[in-house]
Amino acid sequence: MLNQLQKLGATTLGIAERLGRGHLFLWHVLSGFPALLPRFGLVISQLYSVGVLSLLIIAVAGLFVGMVLALQGYYTLVDFGATESLGVLVALSLVRELGPVVGGLLFAGRAGSALTAEIGLMKATEQLSAMEMMAVDPLHRVVAPRFMAGILAMPLLAAIFSALGVIGGYFVAVGLLGVDEGAFWSQMQAKVDLYEDILNGVIKSIVFGFVVTWIAVFEGYDAVPTSEGVSRATTNTVVHGSLAVLGLDFILTALMFD
Amino acid sequence: MTNSDMKTESPHEAAGEPLVRIRDLVYHRGERTIFDGINIDIERGKLTAIMGPSGTGKTTLLRLIGGQLRPDTGTVHVDDQPVSELGYGPLYELRKRMGMLFQNGALLTDLNVFDNVAFPLREHTQLNETMVRDLVLMKLHSVGLRGARDLMPSELSGGMARRVALARAIALDPMMIMYDEPFTGQDPISMGVLVSLLRTLTDALGLTSVVVSHDVQESLSIADYVYVISAGKVVEHGTPDDLRQSKSDWVQQFIQGKSDGPVPFHFPATDYAADLFGGNN
Questions:
Q1: pTM for this structure?
Q2: Per-domain boundaries in chain A
Q3: What span, in angstroms and rounded, lies between the C-alpha atoms of A99 and A183?
Q4: pLDDT in tens, B39-58
Q5: Partner-chain contact A134 B120, CB within 8 Å
Q6: A134 vs B92: CB contact, 8 Å cut-off?
Q7: Chain A residues with beta carbon closer than 8 angstroms to that of B120
C-alpha cells in the first residue's frame, strides 16, 4: 500500500515537474519572438516545412470531409424537405468545428510529429549542444521560428481545410444530388456570421496551433536523446496534441457558443 | 603527483595564470559520483590532454568548463570568470571566445559545409557576405576542405565531418578549443590528419587546446601536458614523458593498454565454479 502511494506521489511530482519545465520552456521561447522580427526569413522557411508541406493532407482531407458532410446532411435534410439548407450545414460544420478540429488533429499528426522528430534528433546528434557552445541559444534560433511558424500556419491550414470542404460539399450537393445551386450559396451567405462563426473558428485554430506546436517543440527538446526516446516523444506529440485539441475544443465551444 | 598534492598547489601557478582553473570540483549524476574534488589547470597557449577510461566523465568535464553543466560544489574559472556563476548573457559572451569540437562533429544537418562554417559568423558578426565568404574559405582551407564547401554533412566521412566542425569552431578565432574524443573511430589517414591539425592549429593560432581522449598514443604525441582521470579523481598529471615514466601500475596499464592489471579484466562477480554449478542465472 505504502509502495503504491509512493509510486503515485512520484508520478504526480514527475508530472508537476514536467509541466513546470514546459512553462519555463514556453516563456524562454516566447522571449525570443521579438528577435525573430528582423530575421523573419527563419520563420518563412519553417512556414514552408510546417505549413506548405502539410497542405496536401489538409486539402485532400478537407475535400473529402466536405463531400461526406454533404452526403450525410442530404440524407437527413431530404426527409424534412430542407435540402436548400445543405450549404449552411456544410459551411457551419466546417467553419465552427471540423476545420479547426480535424485540421488540428492532422496538424498534430503531420507537422507536430515532424517538429518533434527534427528537434529530438538535433538533440540526439548534439546539434543543439553545439549551438549552445557557439553562444547561439537553440531555443531562440531553432525552437522559436518553428513555434511562430506553427502558430501562423494552423489558422491558414484550417481555413484551407474549410474552404476545400465547402467546395467538396458543393460538388456533391449540387453536382451529384441536384440541390439548387442558388439556394446552396445564398443560404450559406445569409446564415454564416463573420464574427460568431468564422472568427470563433479562427480563434479556435490559433489556440490549437499554439498548443499543438508547444507540445511538439517541447517534446522534441525534452526528448531522451536516443532513438527510443525520440520515437516516444514523437508518439507523445501526436497523442497529447490530439487530446489537447479535442479537450480544448469542448471548452472553447462552451465559451463561444453558449 | 597525485590529486591530494594538487589541492595545495596547482601545477602551472608558477608559470602564470592558467586559462582554465578548476578547483575542488564535485559533480554527481544521480547517485553516481562523477568528480570527487578534482583540481585541474589548463595553461594558455598549450595543448592539454585529459585522458581516462570510457565513462570516467571526460566529456562531462568539457560541459562543466563550457557552462552547460553546473558543479555541485567547487569552481570552474575560464579566463578568470567563474563559469558556474555566470548569468545567461555573460556566459554566452564567454562562449563566443570558446570553441568545442563534438565527438561526431555535430554539424547542422540542414546546412551545407560552407553554411555550417559561416553559421557562427552570421550569428555573431555584422560582416557582409563577401567577408563571410573569404573567412569561411580561409577556415576551410586550413583544414583542407575548401573543395568540399558545397557538400552536405551526410556526404562527408567521419573524419571530414570533424574537420568541418573544426573549421567552424575556429571561425570566430576563439581563445580556446575543446575537443571531445577527436580521434575515435578514425581510419589511420584521418587520424594522422586530425593529430597534425590539432597541433598545427594550436601553435599557428596561439590557441589553448583541451583534448579529451582515450587514444593514448595520439594524445601523448601532441600534448604539452596530460591529466589522467579515473573514478572521479585525477590519478596522474604531468608532461607526456612524466606519464610514460610514471610509477603507478594503473597509469602504466592505461597507457600501455594492458588487458589485466590494477583494472581487472573481469567485472566483479561471484566465484566462477560456484556460479557455473549454482543453478539460477
A1: 0.84
A2: 32-256
A3: 23
A4: 999 999 899 999 888 878 88
A5: yes
A6: no
A7: 134-136
